[in-house]
Amino acid sequence: MTANPARPFGRALCAMITPFTPAGDLDLEAARRHASRLVADGCDGLVLSGTTGESPTTTDEEKTALLRAVREAVGDGVPLLAGVGSADTRYTVRLAREAETAGADGLLVVTPYYSRPPQAAVEAHFVRVAEATGIPLMLYDIPGRTGTRIEPGTLLRLAEHPRIVAVKDCSYDLLGATKVMARTPLAYYSGCEELNLPLYAVGGAGYVSTVANVVPRRMRAVLDAFDAGDTAEAARLNGLAVRLVEAMMCSGLPGTVTAKALLDAGPVREPLQPAGREATDGLRRVYEELLAVTD
């Protein structure tokens, strides 16, 4: 993989679901098929075992098996990032080393959650992980889930580490993100689909998207139009996608649940529950409406 420093993992990344069989076991053949389809439909890279990939309920062995299966399916030219975050620094380091051995090109590392460490401890955690492997890190700033922000000042210091190269931004702080991008080489990837275009317009590298599991070409088309200089078309395409983004990500159901409902990709693992028939029918209507106006 030859990386562009401004976009070390490409522009259009999918936070890939983890398919399970009807019995709830890891479905590696379905994972291979889905990963291949995503790449064929415009995804530059894939993030495995993140939030959308149900990492809290998959075993270490399953994470490794999934990474190896997807690598086999998409080849060496597609960046694969492995989610290795946890609330325990030692455990995160172990997961990071296992992911590197299994063939990951990068690591998605979320802020330690629940214990709500102060910023000095957050910084030390990320540095420990970065020092433990030889592959680059994408820091995952999602305080709504972890309870702890990666403050802009902390990011400014972390950007000095040669293997900390990117941020998946779910902070909902466009000002803070813009300030960090202006002062560091960190590549910012939107983790909230409604901010994909705004963040990209102020210098973001791209996105890591759950919705891209379902409509990868339509999510990428927004960035393609912007890069072509047609900002009006980018805004139009973004506006068309908003209804599906809202239905999948802001309806009270996790994106994992809504993506699997639309893809018929097997069950979710408890404590998550599958979407009910009414919710699934509503998602399907919005999805079909988007296809009708963009095909």
TrEMBL record:
UniProt xrefs under SUPFAM superfamilies: Aldolase (SSF51569)
Top-tier EC class: lyase
Residues annotated as the enzyme's active site: Y140, K168
Protein name: 4-hydroxy-tetrahydrodipicolinate synthase
EC number: 4.3.3.7
Assembly notes: Homotetramer; dimer of dimers.
Family to which the UniProt record says this protein belongs: Belongs to the DapA family.
Name of the encoding gene: dapA
Domain of life: Bacteria
Function noted in UniProt: Catalyzes the condensation of (S)-aspartate-beta-semialdehyde [(S)-ASA] and pyruvate to 4-hydroxy-tetrahydrodipicolinate (HTPA).
Catalysed reactions, as listed in the record: L-aspartate 4-semialdehyde + pyruvate = (2S,4S)-4-hydroxy-2,3,4,5-tetrahydrodipicolinate + H2O + H(+)
CDD domains, A to Z: DHDPS (cd00950)
Subcellular location, record wording: Cytoplasm
Major subcellular location class: cytoplasm
